[in-house]
Specification:
Elements lengths: L3 H24 L4 H5 L9 H20 L4 H4 L2 H5 L14 H5 L6 H19 L5 H5 L1 E3 L6 E2 H28 L1
Antiparallel strand pairs: 1-2
Helix pairs in contact: 1-7, 1-9, 3-7, 3-9
Length: 175
């Protein structure tokens, strides 16, 4: 049987991999217009949800690993060319901000998420001891956020948004 550190790493990598494996099938074949489609005037579209869940994962896992985000290190911010600040992750955006999101096709979203998945696996595989998981990574909260809490929070967030994205895709397909 694997030791606890290996088991923990395997579980976390599996959680991130499940999102990475499912996301392309939800985006496959969608046009730029379909990626921007909103089922209600203020609802989040599929493309924005994919970008947001990936930006949160990128931002937060890079913070855990104390490494540069794929968004900037991989040139994704420039490739997307969005009308947002480079550090934007979608949190707190207005309906108008969300409505300004556009990409030419799903391949950009899929490629960026694959890069973020790689970064996430790299970060998680560097965590070996309880002290690694107990390390404070964000002091803006009370209590301060540990690496373990941040990782679990990200997994919860990205799986929730993937579910929302799949639901909107179902609505789109039924139009």
């Amino acid at each position: 049987m694997a030791d606890m550190a290996t088991l923990t790493t395997d579980i976390l990598v599996d959680a991130f991999t499940r999102v990475r494996d499912e996301l392309p099938s939800q985006l496959d074949g969608l046009s730029a217009e379909e990626l921007r489609w909103r089922p209600a005037p203020d609802a989040n579209p599929i493309g924005w949800l994919a970008w947001h869940l990936t930006r949160v994962q990128d931002d937060h896992l890079a913070g855990v690993g104390d490494v540069e985000q794929a968004w900037t290190s991989g040139g994704w911010a420039a490739r997307f060319g969005l009308p947002y600040d480079e550090g934007a992750i979608g949190y707190g955006q207005t309906s108008a901000d969300v409505g300004a999101f556009t990409v030419p096709d799903a391949s950009l979203l899929i490629g960026y998420h694959a890069a973020v998945h790689d970064l996430s696996v790299e970060v998680v595989t560097q965590l070996h001891t309880p002290a690694d998981y107990e390390r404070i990574v964000d002091e803006r909260w009370d209590p301060p956020v540990t690496a373990a809490v941040r990782i679990v929070s990200v997994i919860g967030d990205i799986t929730q948004h993937l579910g929302q994205l799949a639901y909107v895709r179902g609505l789109l397909d039924q139009r």
